[in-house]
Amino acid sequence: MSSIAVIDYGMGNLRSVSKALEHVAPDAEVQVTSDPEMVRRAERVVFPGQGAMPDCMREMEARGLRPALLEAARTKPFLGICIGLQMLFERSEEGDTPGLGIFPGRVKRFPPQLMKDAQGNKLKVPHMGWNEVMQAEPHALWRGIADASRFYFVHSFYVEAGNPELVAGYSIYAFPFTCAVAQDNIFAVQFHPEKSQAAGLALLANFVTWKP
Amino acid sequence: MLRPRSASEPMGLAKRVIPCLDVTRGRVVKGVNFVGLRDAGDPVEIARRYDDQGADELTFLDITASSDERDLILHIIEAVAAEVFIPLTVGGGVRKVDDVRRLLNAGADKVSINTAAVQNPQLVADASGRYGAQCIVVAIDAKRVDPPADAKSVGAVPRWEVYTHGGRKSTGLDAVAWARRMQTLGAGEILLTSMDRDGTKSGFDLALTRAVADAVDVPVIASGGVGNLEHLAAGILEGRADAVLAASIFHYGEYSVRQAKELMASRGIEVRL
Question: Can you tell me whether residue A75 is helix, strand or coil?
């Protein structure tokens, strides 16, 4: 039986993530856990995150999760969600916070002076709601999901990948920004698959059977 | 440089359509009327119907009068969040940061604060600081205050005052200034209801909606007064709202969420179909 660890470091509601995983993988053992040993033992790891990245990093470190996270990111199917994507990068403008540095690149705030659409209308921040996700490359986690399908976003910061090869998907909000990255056994997304109805459940279903 | 691959240009963020459900003592009230619904008060079944119709989010308003029955909303949210995978907002009776925590833990994605934000604005700052602006909605109930008769000359602008306790208590606060202040304190979204229009089916107060939407940088949900689908489109096009919320036109089966979105799309509004 497959086991999936949903990493809990006290930052927000993980019920939706675990329920969505149980929904697509009724036979899997889904465990919401802050125990590094459980993370080590799990076959797959989901790394969510909500709120502010400085708080997320602090709480993650306080639970001693860094070594287990880095090991999981090297060795097993790993899905980052929202701040769980942002934390994989080197540094965030949010509180000038260092991230885990697994990927080169930075996390930036949507710059107020650029937040206009093609007609000159103001674009709100947080970027909140359903936006189209353009698939930059074929990937096992996009299987069965139409290009430009809509996923649910809620965030004020976005990642700027230092290596363009990492980009698996992007969306447009004032400008194109990276909303999915992929490398080897890691896939990470800015949007919330657990809140993105059919398209989101399809992505999670792809993750729970993914053999990178 | 990232470029769209397909010939069709990407369209960007969709405007949202949000059905609102009133709940009390664990049941949905105001008789939702879907054909073939086995239990008209079952929150899970109703949520599933709206999800099937393409609702972008759901808002639950807890109208429970007594505080000792408030925990029932937690069970509702838990049950809905286990089966419906779209964002859920819960409002009604949120008084302290711990109320926010319990709702989020039950599966709410956003918590809406109304009266308590006026009584204790620090609550908004504390909740936002702890859980992030993305999950803090400030609900504003506004009533129009007409300028005095002698000022009704060219250039006299309308203003709106914030009301609390379901529209019964005036606060003296200017709604536009209040929305700005709530944004500054950490609101990630404003749910704006016109008390003048609520229940009238005569459409949103578009001037109010636009005044607030233009004044803040966070998303604004227009609410109060929807009687037909054109009203929803007007809330976006003329009111400049980012999302529209309605209750009765969906509950009584007059229109489905999908019909609403099709009408909005035909008016050139970006929606998730």
Answer: helix
